[in-house]
Amino acid sequence: MIAIIDYDAGNIKSVENALFSLGEKAILTRDADRILSAEGVILPGVGAFGDAMEKLHAYGLADVIQRVAKEGIPLLGICLGLQLLFESSEESPGVEGLHILDGRIRKLPSADGLKIPHIGWNDLSFPSEGRLFRGISEHSYAYFVHSYYLRAEDESIVKATTRYGALIHASVEKDNVFACQFHPEKSSETGLKILQNFIDIAKNSSRK
Predict the structure, then answer these.
(1) Does the predicted model carry a pTM greater than 0.90?
(2) Which of 92, 162, 172, 188 lies deepest, with the highest CB count within 10 Å?
């Protein structure tokens, strides 16, 4: 069973529907026991960094997510969920992220012909092998909706990149923690394959 963390994020239902389409049982929950007993956990997100952190703390979920990471439960952050796993964001100065991973979130730079927010399909490059991308060809397309992007401190954790006015660290992986800046639940067959890969990782986790 996959637990989707419910903190009023905008794309929760679309993530749940994508998992259901893959035949996977998923629950929307903010209950710590159910989250910590799940095979895998997804932290979705659409919205502002500061507001999201405020809600995670208000619902007592920030500490729960920290425990998920420390206890080896496979964890997948999506879009804002990726950003929250890092230290801070230029979107919300003075607000601390979960800091499960090292790096900061920056504002996409203005450039001629590029609209912000970045909304649309971009191809993915794979600087190193990532378990989320098994069976997926390099330069496959994924769907992005964001105004801020990740620059990870340790580039060895970066498993996918794309370019939109800057080099974007589009997906990261470190031990049991995975994250995508793009929306796999909205990325057609490529996205469903990524979600299936995460499900497979969760079900075969050595934590069991």
Answers:
(1) yes
(2) 172
